[in-house]
Amino acid sequence: MAQQVTTQKKTNKDYDEQKPMQGLLSEAPTRTILVSIDTPNTNWPINESLDELEQLASTAGATCVDRLVQHLAVPNPATLLGSGKVEELKQLVQFHNCDAVIFDLELKPNQHRNL
Questions:
Q1: CB pairs under 8 A, 24+ apart, for 72-79?
Q2: Predicted confidence band of residue 63 (pLDDT cuts 50, 70, 90)
Q3: Residue 111: CB partners within 8 Å, gap ≥ 6?
Q4: In DSSP terms, which residues pair with 67 in a beta bridge?
């Protein structure tokens, strides 16, 4: 007796359910602003560092729409940035309709909360 073979057409839903990375990466930001701090202790060129950060963000699917660099002798412990740069960053986020801000440095929990 001949065996009957059936094929099943996969839908987009089937492919979505098989994606290995869902959640955070599936909802990655699309428009970002890059931020860096330039202090006397900075041992690398800020623009090169931001270029690398932009490439990483681009690889993750984000488009970097602007950059912001804060020149400080000592970073602000509450926000990392000075109050004027915090306001400038807020305006840039609104102007560009950004999903995220990516800092070139690791923020402390209180800095993250304050920003």
A1: 72/37, 72/38, 72/39, 73/39, 73/40, 74/39, 75/37, 75/39, 77/108, 77/111, 78/110, 78/111, 78/114, 79/111, 79/114, 79/115
A2: very high
A3: 77, 78, 79, 80
A4: 34
pLDDT of 44: 84
Sheet holding 100-103, edge to edge: 63-71, 31-38, 100-103
Radius of gyration of the chain (CA): 21
**Residues 6+ away with beta carbon under 8 Å from 67:** 33, 34, 35, 36, 50, 54
Q: Does the pTM of the predicted model rise above 0.85?
A: no
